TrEMBL record:
Origin organism lineage: Bacteria, Bacillati, Actinomycetota, Actinomycetes, Kitasatosporales
Residues where Fe cation binds: H53, H140, H144
Protein name, per record: Hercynine oxygenase
Signal sequence coordinates: none
Enzyme class per UniProt: oxidoreductase
Domain of life of the native organism: Bacteria
Any Pfam family the entry gives: DinB_2
Pathway, per record: Amino-acid biosynthesis; ergothioneine biosynthesis
Amino acid sequence: PHEADAEALRQRALTALLTARERTALLTDSVDDHELTAQHSPLMSPLVWDLAHIGNQEELWLLRGVAGREAMRPEIDGLYDAFEHPRATRPSLPLLAPAEARAYAAEVRGRALDVLDGTVLDGCRPLVRAGFAFGMIAQHEQQHDETMLITHQLRSGPAVLAAAVPPAPPEAAGLPAEVLVPGGPFTMGTSTEPWALDNERPAHVCDVAGFFIDTAPVTCGAYQEFIEDGGYTEQRWWAPEGWAMVREHELTAPLFWHRDAGQWLRRRFGVTEAVPGNEPVIHVSWYEADAFARWAGRRLPTEAEWEKAARHDPVSGRSRRYPWGDEDPAPGLANLGQRHLRPAPAGAYAQGRCPYGAGQLIGDVWEWTSSDFLPYPGFSAFPYREYSEVFFGPAHKVLRGGSFAVDPVACRGTFRNWDLPVRRQIFSGFRTARDA
Ligand code: AVJ
Ligand code: FE
């Protein structure tokens, strides 16, 4: 039975690595070399940087970290260290050209698969226990795939990506606007999920007062009411720094929206279309989410509230891996993995709802919470401080639940994302809450 477990872990790690590389190929082969090296936005790296950075992290952790190999090209490490060069300056670096970057990433991958074959995944080294380092690197690649999809959204020119339309809600008007989550303790975070990253650990009991939370993310239609009601022109709805941002950048709507003959349109992956009223709003900053909630007489949920709604099973008293239970995500449960290039309408994925009745907690849009990104009690950085620890503090707000652009390997009820409260190019939306 032990050997069978180790074999299953190896298969899981292999599938995760191969799935990530297929997506990386889709995102980097769908544009020409000129577009791979171009800077589509000062907010983003050129796509060719992400490509070689993916290979370089894999080399660092799987070839050098797990297998103790020598650096393949020590001279390029600095170029692909995210802390040495800010995104805006990356196009001017002597980066590997597209063909070289592809060849480097492929060479690293070939060797990494040999390392996977030759490593005992059930050993006592924390880095390889349950295949952790391989899972971490698959998640890292998928996170950069999401970053590259953001770059695709920011590029101008005709569409190069296409995907099916996500499923419509099963029933017309069956959902209440909000559900009650009664007060009481629940287990937040995890000490048992094998590929959970350091900031999700350890599991700890967290007491949460009763609250109401929206059954679905706030829709474009609801957000338009905020706009029509003068949302962006009335200071009283905004945090001071949010109001400063609205004035400085003359914001009037979410990123990628514009008004044409009285109608709101948006640009989405190279296509201009009417803003869909029943779809979760996306590309809003934390400040916009916070202002909307205040205007609606509500507030953003805290991170603990979000996780209790998403994981707590009131029958067993246990926290589960996902809103629907412990089973891995499947296409009928959540909009993940870039199967679609947009969130599904509010009310979709009835099978994926949590026991309290809230839906679309996983997938569709990243959801801003009111919480700063902070370590859990008992946190310890692993395997490197620069993944989470250096970002802890009041500058970053936590996002939960994952977007349509997140792969299942990098998404679970405990997964924590974070960003600056001004960020809007990310696939961010929100839901609101209130005290019970
Ligand atoms: C967790 C999404 C904030 O993209 O900056 C990628 C993930 N860390 N490479 C980011 C990450 C290192 C990180 N986020
Ligand atoms: Fe990275």
